[in-house]
Amino acid sequence: MAWLAVLVSVLAGAANPLQSATNGELNKQLQQPVWAGIVVYASGLLGMLIIQVFARQSPPWDQAGGVSWWAWMGGLISIGSTIAGLTMVQKLGAGIFTSLSVTSSLLVSVLLDHFGLLGLKQHPASLGRVVGCALLVAGVWLVGRS
Q1: HEC profile for 59-117?
Q2: How many Å apart are CA 79 and CA 34, to the nearest integer?
Q3: How far is it, in rounded angstroms, from Cα 111 to Cα 19?
Q4: Residue 122: band (very low, low, confident or very high) from pLDDT cuts 50, 70, 90
Q5: Residue 34: which of 44, 48, 45, 23 has the closest Cα?
Q6: What's the pTM?
Q7: Which of 100, 126, 130, 145 has an alpha carbon 20 to 30 Å from 41's alpha carbon atom?
Q8: CA 122, 127, 132: angle at the middle one, nearest 5?
Q9: What percent of the chain has a predicted confidence (pLDDT) above 70?
């Protein structure tokens, strides 16, 4: 099953530049990032509702009251990255935008793991992880120079 987790993670990563590019094109054609964002989230909601038809999960009303306040913020936080993709990918190009977003994602992820923040299991920032982050920063610089 570990290979399936890796495959799904790779596909999710591959989807990032595709999502940014399609969202950027939508914004370019609509010329209104807020409305483009509304369309993005409406289509995402429709997709989740279709998945729910097959998943048939009952709403977890009895567990909702015990959820940490910050755990509800994922959708709000994603608005920032969605608006950034809508407006910046056309200006920067998919390569720079994706390299910047992936590198910053990994840097924040290593910090979250190191300190065990937001309910994550603690994974120390080893030398290998720090070097990996530094190599990504160098990669952003190299991609940006072209």
Answers
A1: CCHHHHCCCCHHHHHHHHHHHHHHHHHHHHHHHHCHHHHHHHHHHHHHHHHHHHHHHCC
A2: 10
A3: 26
A4: very high
A5: 23
A6: 0.77
A7: 100
A8: 95
A9: 99
Cα–Cα distance, 126 to 134 (Å, whole number): 12
**Per-residue pLDDT tens for 18-50?**
888 899 999 999 999 999 999 999 999 999 999
DSSP state of 119: T
CA–CA dist 24, 15 (Å, integer): 14
Q: In which residue are the tokens 């409305």 written? A: 35
Measured CA angle at 15 (ends 143, 117), to 5 deg: 85
Pairwise CA distance, residues 92 & 89, whole Å: 5
